[in-house]
Amino acid sequence: MSTIELVGLGKRYGDFTAVAPTDLHIAQGELVTLLGPSGSGKSTILSMIAGLTAPSEGTVRIGGRDVTHVPPAQRNLGMVFQSYALFPHMTVFDNIAFALSIRGVAKRDIARRVDKALEQVRLGGLARRRPSELSGGQQQRVALARALVFEPEILLLDEPMGALDKNLREQVQLELRQLQRDLGVTTVLVTHDQEEALSLSTRLVVLDKGQVQQVDSPMQAYRRPRNRFVAQFIGTANLFSGELSQRSGVPTVRLADGTEVVCGDAGDAAGAVDVVVRPEHIELLPHDAGDGLQAEVVESVYLGQSTKLHLRTGGGVPVIAMVQQRQLDVSPGRWLRIHWRAEHAWPMPQ
Ligand code: ADP
Questions:
Q1: How far is the C-alpha of 235 from the C-alpha of 153, rounded, in Å?
Q2: CB 52 within 8 A of CB 44
Q3: How far apart are CA 203 and CA 266, in angstroms?
Q4: Mutate to test the pocket of ligand 1, among 19, 43, 56 (most ligand atoms within 8 A of CB)
């Protein structure tokens, strides 16, 4: 059992609240990502789970055990940071073995455990190399092997892909996800990269200014954001402000210019709302169509697979649309109508 529970866990520095009291329950085998802009409190939460930062209040439980006052080395966790901190003069094997030998593990056990960890990250053939003879992705895997060699209950990853370029990062992300799933090790990842968070996580914890904004699956956080911050931090959001009311049981938002937007579902929103519509859900209609909002093309950027349109509605709201269709003239200055299915309009309380 290696669940992680945070109960009212918070951190203050003097008058400044780095992390407001936070409750979170992470189940065995989950990969939960702490996602937010720089300074939102992600690393502080990870560091409190690790035992490197003492909380100002609250409790950390790992596998049901209260570890709030237990030193890091006795929490049975593996950690990987952005700077891999490998010893440059040691081989890959020795870098991993070192961690075991300083903890007094017997020599014959060390060799067996290092070999196993290297197999897990598929670096078996490179044990004799030095870090400088490895690619960035391989170095990252050595750092991961060094964390896994302890067979930790919990894996904590702080921007582990931060030093890799984009293509390599995608490959390493995929490997990490497969390995984490195979090992079933409960994992907490810190990143400010929303694509990374969406592609890797079973759940996201979205943070802003030390406050949890939403805890949800990536799909739910993208489709059903709880507020403007989450909507704009995860992906691109078009936002239409207005007043939500029920018209014969159909949630309908009246925008400032009098036009109406129908929503498929309204959750618990009521009154003043921002309606989110994602760029890929916006369809274009000719200007003389009866349906949709009037919008003028401001800029049109051809991207190969799709075209990114910057538009402005008759009411002056900026809109971004990702469209595939090429039938309509979308040159700047053209007026058309934009339309979306009701299920793709999601109202959030303002
Ligand atoms: P993130 O990981 O999301 O970038 P951090 O958890 O590192 O954010 O920091 C959260 C906030 O706490 C930041 O405003 C940071 O400046 C502040 N902070 C972190 N460590 C300290 C410290 N030792 N003393 C004072 N403020 C700190």
A1: 32
A2: no
A3: 22
A4: 43
- In angstroms, the CA 234 to CA 250 distance is 27
In the predicted model, is pLDDT for residue 243 greater than 90? yes
Q: Which tokens sit at 245?
A: 């009311």
pLDDT average, residue stretch 329-337: 94
pLDDT score recorded for residue 209? 98
Q: Which residues line ligand 1 (CB under 6 A)?
A: 13, 18, 36, 38-44
Q: How far is the CA of 104 from the centre of ligand 1 (A)?
A: 35
Hey, how many other C-beta atoms are within 10 angstroms of the C-beta on 103?
10
pLDDT in tens, 110-168: 999 999 999 988 888 899 999 999 988 888 889 989 989 988 999 999 988 877 778 88
Name residues whose C-beta falls within 8 Å of residue 226's C-beta, 6 or more positions apart in sequence. Answer: 213, 214, 348
Which pLDDT belongs to residue 1? 62
Q: Look at residues 173, 177, 201, 274 and name the one whose alpha carbon lies nearest to residue 35.
A: 201
Q: Are 164 and 175 in contact (CB under 8 A)?
A: no
pLDDT reported for residue 84: 67
17 or 88: which leads in pLDDT: 17
Q: Taking 80 as the threshold, does the pLDDT of residue 292 lie above it? A: yes
CA nearest ligand 1 atom 1, residue: 39
Ligand 1 center to residue 268 CA distance, Å?
Answer: 33
Residues 153-171 pLDDT 10s: 999 999 888 777 788 888 8
Measured from the Cα of 38, ligand 1's closest atom is 4
C-beta neighbour count of 54 within 10 angstroms: 10
| Tokens (6 digits) for 102 | 């300083």
pLDDT at 104: 84
